[in-house]
From TrEMBL:
UniProt GO molecular function: phosphorelay sensor kinase activity
Gene Ontology CC: one annotated term: membrane
Gene3D superfamilies (UniProt xref): Histidine kinase-like ATPase, C-terminal domain (3.30.565.10)
Stretches assigned to coiled coil: none
Residue ranges crossing the lipid bilayer per the database entry: 12-35, 55-72, 84-104, 124-152
InterPro entries documented for this protein: Bact_2-comp_sensor_kinase, HATPase_C_sf, HATPase_dom, His_kinase_dom, Sig_transdc_His_kin_internal
Keyword Acyltransferase: no
Protein name: Histidine kinase domain-containing protein
Keywords from the named record: Membrane, Transmembrane, Transmembrane helix
Organism (species): Flavilitoribacter nigricans (strain ATCC 23147 / DSM 23189 / NBRC 102662 / NCIMB 1420 / SS-2) (Lewinella nigricans)
Amino acid sequence: MQGQVKKTGGSDLKLILVLTAVFTLSQVTTFFRIYAQHQMDGVPLDWGGAIWDRFLAWIIGFIFLVAIVITTRRYLLEKKSWPLTIGIHLFIAAVVSFIWYVTLISISKLFGPTNGEAFANFDLLYWFFMNFDKLFLLYLCTAIITYAYYYVQRDRDNRINRSKMENQLLEARLKMLQSQLHPHFLFNTLNSITSLMDVDIHKAKIMTVDLADLLRHVLAHKDVQLINLDDELAILSKYVDIEKTRFSDDLEINWHLEGDFKRVQIPSMLLQPLVENSIKHGFSRQHPSLRIDIRLKRLKDRLQVIIEDNGQGIPQQEAGTIFETGTGIQNTQQRLESIYGDQQVFSVTNKPEGGVMNLIEIPLALSVQSPLTEVSRSREVLTS
């Protein structure tokens, strides 16, 4: 709090200008009240004297308003109880009101027009009590407005700081999830290459080259949460080439793209874990061959992704825990929830005719020209 208040010089000026405008309005109102009173009493108004009195009152009032704002702001740093703070301000309001009025009268008699008549001490005290309520309330109103202004400002700053911290935590969480995904994918691919070494060394070499190309794509986007759909499909295509080399004609991959995907962005490495999961769990003795359909469809302001296969499906005993035990599935769910909140849909279900269908629906994100971070872009999708 102390650091925040020390940086509010510009805010002090704004607050003082607002209070000055209000105080100026009160002086103008007072001037017309005096004019109306003279008209009702049938007494001619000394325009020069009246204007001088209001101008002098405005100058002195401005000085006291600045002093009140500065003094009140200092109490924002103090950790005193509310009853004690109120008591202190009531005492200061009484003292300042007296000093304010004495200063006004003294300067008025010093610089104003003189008619040879001077105030006696009891007259000064009498006139002070007649005007005490106005100055007392003016101090309290100024102090209350100052407190309210800085508490609102502090609340706004806290919300901005909290939002920044949430974005930083979100970005750290997404990077952590993505860092989990890369080794998981790499180890599985290396295991595929290893299993092929004793069977077909030529295919193993081809897979190694494809893996190197794939890793270049992945590393190029390692710190990016949202990438262009074309780049994501290029990464997935490299992975598909590796798996097709491994399984040859036993694996069939079909692509179905519907709609305009120019500038469309999706989370990096979103599709590969789902295709990998279909391959890993789709093959079985009863399913020696596997077909995977990858469907992407643009629906107005949303993007639909369906990855389905005709494999063995999810075993019944694992169906209820797949989002808790499957690294790729669990990671995908957490990333989608972190980026899109409750505006995303993700489901993994067995199809009646056999096989598994992965369904994802997310808000449509388009690449922008401004240098926003990818997390900021995902937040922009949420609020658009």
